[in-house]
Amino acid sequence: MIRKLCIIGVGLIGGSAARRARRFCEEIVGIDADPENLRRAETLGVIDQGCASLERGVAAADFVLIATPVGAIEPLFRALAPLWRPDCIYTDVGSTKGNVVEAALRVFGIVPPNFIPGHPIAGAERSGVEAADARLFEGKRVILTPLPESAPDALARVEAFWMHLGARVERMDVGHHDEVLAATSHLPHVLAFTLARMLGRKDEQAEIFRYAAGGFRDFTRIASSDPKMWLDICRANRGPLLELLGEYETALREVAGLVRSDDADGLYACFSEARAAREKFLKSTENNHA
Ligand SMILES: NC(=O)c1ccc[n+]([C@@H]2O[C@H](COP(=O)([O-])OP(=O)(O)OC[C@H]3O[C@@H](n4cnc5c(N)ncnc54)[C@H](O)[C@@H]3O)[C@@H](O)[C@H]2O)c1
Ligand SMILES: O=C(O)C(=O)C[C@]1(C(=O)O)C=C[C@@H](O)C=C1
């Protein structure tokens, strides 16, 4: 049971956590940089109360969930530093973890033992509190990246928090997290944004979107995601992302070579390998949900 949960950033992720956390929190207070979003969160009953002041919002909270874009976390740590209490648990949901840990080190000198970095591997292309969904984390993975200095009781409480939201919690090393998520999430978003932008420019002249159907829709769904959120993620994880963009360039050139030389066997082998890789992914997600 949490007495007072304070959520900083009551958007898709913070709002979804709030909606489900109702069941085991006596009070949920929200803080948001956007007063209009905070008012909507109150009106929708996602939070009990919106708080314009960080100081009042975190006062007497026993659990603080930071759910802002990752670029906002360092300034937030600075604002929270004088208010930081040893009897409260702090965690975040940022899509990148290395920059969050580095920000904590710069602000506090150490990663506070009662701050456990986290990342729910669940989301959507929509943002804002209206998109919040109590079932968003059901059956989904949450990765926690604790450090040697993390307090075991804080880690246990953050694990229990996510399990109560229906998620399956795993632990991972910070660097490994950022490499893996660069491949499975950050690279696909950059590719979808790039394709949607490129074809959007063509559409100006040729109205090609009139003829776009499922293929384009499926490939580019995530290009509807919030540009500000993805700007922050790309900047925070630029090393692993650049490495993968380089690999993708090479792979794309290889396919272009196969098309150019009309290499039917090569193309067939390439598409078959890709299909098998995706089938394997689909099977593994089926097993995960079993
Ligand atoms: N959207 C996803 O699919 C997804 C999935 C997993 C993790 N995440 C991570 O979760 C975090 C939130 O993403 P989201 O999709 O909920 O975004 P969102 O835009 O829906 O919500 C973020 C909220 O934070 C508020 N905010 C911004 N700066 C703030 C500040 N300094 N102080 C207080 N509030 C502030 C915004 O006004 C907004 O309401 C991001 O770090 C993102 O990387 C997103
Ligand atoms: O499903 C989506 O729309 C998402 O973008 C979710 C998604 C992902 O890439 O899988 C996006 C960012 C996260 O940090 C975690 C999950």
From TrEMBL:
Protein name (Swiss-Prot/TrEMBL): prephenate dehydrogenase
InterPro entries in the record: 6-PGluconate_DH-like_C_sf, NAD(P)-bd_dom_sf, PDH_C, PDH_N, Preph/Arog_dehydrog, Prephen_DH
Entry keyword set: Amino-acid biosynthesis, Aromatic amino acid biosynthesis, NAD, Oxidoreductase, Tyrosine biosynthesis
Name of the top EC class for this enzyme: oxidoreductase
Pathway: Amino-acid biosynthesis; L-tyrosine biosynthesis; (4-hydroxyphenyl)pyruvate from prephenate (NAD(+) route): step 1/1
Protein origin, superkingdom: Bacteria
GO molecular function, one term: prephenate dehydrogenase (NAD+) activity
UniProt-listed Enzyme Commission number(s): 1.3.1.12
PANTHER family: PREPHENATE DEHYDROGENASE (PTHR21363), PREPHENATE DEHYDROGENASE [NADP(+)] (PTHR21363:SF0)
A Pfam family the protein falls into: PDH_C
Annotated GO biological process: tyrosine biosynthetic process
Occurrences of domain Prephenate/arogenate dehydrogenase (ranges): 3-289
Catalysed transformations (reactions): prephenate + NAD(+) = 3-(4-hydroxyphenyl)pyruvate + CO2 + NADH
The family this protein is said to belong to: Belongs to the prephenate/arogenate dehydrogenase family.
Native source species: Methylococcus geothermalis
